[in-house]
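User: Can you write out an input/output pair for a complex, sequences first and structure second?

Assistant: Here is one pair. Inputs:
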Amino acid sequence: MARSSILSDELLRKLISVGQVDILVGIPTFNNASTIEAVVKAVHVGLARHFPRERTVLINPDGGSDDGTPESVIRAPMADEEMSGSSMLRTTHRLTVRHSGVPGGAAGVRTVFAAADLLQARAVVVIDADVTTMTPEWVVDLARPIWKNEADVVLPIYPRGRFDGPLVSQLVRPLMGAAYARQLTCNIGGDFSCSGRFAAGMVGRSIWDDDLTRPALDVWLVATSLAEDIRLTQAHLGSRRFAAHGTLAELFGTVVGAALASLDQYSSVWNSRSGLVDVPVRGVATEATGADSAIDPAPLSERYRTGLADLTPLLREILCTSTLARLKASAASEEKIPTISDPLWVTTVYEFAAAAHRGVMNREHLTQALVPLYLGRTASFFTEIAAADARGYGGRLAALEQEYRSLRPHLVELWNADGRR
Amino acid sequence: MVQLQPWYKNAIFYEVPVKAYCDTNGDGIGDFRGLISKLDYLAELGVDCLWILPMYPSPFRDDGYDISDYRAIHPNYGSLEEFREFLDEAHERGMRVITELVVNHTSDQHPWFVEARSSRDNPKRDWYVWSDTDDRYKGVRIIFLDTELSNWAWDPISKSYYWHRFFSHQPDLNYDNPQVREEIWKVMKFWLDMGVDGFRVDAVPYLIEREGTSCENLPETHVILKFLRRRMDEQFTGRMLLAEANMWPEDVRPYFGDGDEFHMAFHFPIMPRMFMSLRLEDRKPLIEIIERTPEIPESCHWALFLRNHDELTLEMVTDAERDYMYDSYAADPVARINLGIRRRLAPLLDGDRRRVELMHGILMSLPGSPVLYYGDEIGMGDNMYLGDRNGVRTPMQWNGGWNGGFSTADPERLYQPLISNPIYGYQAINVESQRRNEHSLLKWTQRIIRVRRSTSVFGSGTIELLRPANHRVLAYIRSLGDEQILVVNNLSNSAQAVELELPQLVGAIPIEMFGGSLFPRIGLLPYMLTLSPYAFYWFRLRWL
């Protein structure tokens, strides 16, 4: 029986013409016509400026756009005179192809990885199609550590505003960093790069087909890198705005669910680790551009209080008695915005992680139960840092990460316990 | 009906320095008697026209390009009588001869300059370009960057500066002076009367100087050149002028005029791009320069070459391209001179026979007349430690015996030492051994010349570039009347597959020109070909 193929005949023919490459840039798309031309142009300018001698290809796996995205990819200007004084010595290849699989990030990335495997690419850079703030220098910032054989995966660091991305800064990154004993400052999600070796190794894994892993590929790539001791580097890029994809509940289900599941998969790895290993950081940190708009924490706190009350029966299955009591005490306080301290928050997260591991309930229900607590924590944190400058904000995040590390033994103890709370 | 084309459009040229070819009087320097003795070899090789490097009297401070007498033969090379004999013998074998004409400057030992510098009132004073200061023509680039700091040199005799675009011992002639133009025409006539078939005119862009300009390619230059061409056409038929103008092709275009200036001009920028495309394994550099090459008058033609007596010039490339070429082909800084690389073809290509063949295949199939450099037909090496560009002008290697068969003199007396290393030395690389080996580079070169001469398409036809998705393949169609040839070159070190979209050739049967093999008929679907590393195909197309 014929085996199904990741690569279509059409793409394979195009890859044959491209031949071996040094740098492969992949931009998966699905209805990104409004942003893709600028992204493609920035990629080509970046390659022309920083890798003019190298063999390069831009591959756009498209999930079936009906807004003209592939045509926009091909149409994006590439003439040498537009390259701001640089020029490529070699033919610049640009391919667009309809990929099989569910439209979205994972299938496109897998196509990119498979192409990288076949073309023996030395460095693979994956760029999101909606990065309106991308500059040509992102290409070299992501590719160079791979190119110089200093890393196998490069994760991005974007300057974030104080109120941006709390799901990552409050939960996912410090949780994974502490669990795997790695000093992380990167974003989980977004643009990244990897070696051809890494890409080739990932192509055949089951993460692409699993309903749990596929929607949160970013998390799984990070978890795999951390757990399997892949040479990891973090690179400062410029500002990046993330478009909201789905509701908070959906985001929790995929991202937080994936983070918790990865802890399960790699349990034996992170359990045996201790201490803290630095992950190299390259480039120069920049300030976030755009207005640092404060968010009104009051509605978040309201949902916290309501959710805490409604979900108490569930939370008794998940949390230790003392932790639940402290949360209730915070909710009952007369403060307009209840305070959820770092220790309380981290303890909560760890007890949720352990509960997910023990399988006390359906994982989806469990992650959803964390949502109101997360909102309460977010409101508390936002209130605390409302008057802080960038340095102060950075210090608070560092303190939070330290708290995750300090309480790591609690996670380990709960994880390996026999069910007592 | 295909019009009869001028002879130079279907000619294969062979550049040969007299001193380097064959010495018959035992003084260690090649001479015309020696050249005569090798005409049968050249006829067997199959070349149509010999380009003789400067053979005039000279103090040899620039290898003969510093001329001290335009109407004589340097005694090292023989006599005028021997030169005439050489011309006749070449003509008898069906070969034409063009000689070097250095019009921009003379040696400072030339009697004209000796007179001009003797006093400010001398009648020949105005035959050169003088100035009381070195401030004139500021900003004009220096060509011999490695040795010259200025385009002005101080003359201690007449206490003034004289202009020189090349070495300081090569003062520029003043073409604003009608006497100079007339005298140069008389020099040309002298040799044309003798039977020379034309001239390779050295350094043509620099004849005129004007304040506030680059002093290159000025309109007045073309007036002078048209004058010389007109005088030649009035009195002689079938002669040819070949311009040496190291410029972008659009800047060389004016030197063709309306077919009333030069018949031919070297296409300098295409040459480094052949090497670049080969190393990059990417046709892009070549495609770009071919597309940039303008149309030229029907009677005119480009001269293409891989190497010559000068450095592989990197003037007409970008800085990034020059850096790439240096890194790729001249990692040893000794190999670099001025803005170029002083190496021969075979060493540049690491002695790789396949690459040597491919480069010749491209040279012979692009629009233009190929100019082969002596010794490249046997894969001669070089000696970059000899100084200046002498390393690519070493004695021709005829056999593995005494002095490589070049001369009976003591080796120490040779004008330059032979190449003698184990790879390119005369014991390993020589005509006699390659004549005996049917599979030698010499035999192969003879074959490709024969194949090229079997059709006029390469010399006189048009070119249509193809752009298959595989950038490692350079492909094009050459056409002349009803005759068409499909050329496919694999620039890569690895086997390649290529699909060619050939709607204009549907129904044609490709016949490979070297072996005569039939290939499948071209249909509506993309035509798939596979090529081994560095392979190339010439397909004659037949509709039957």
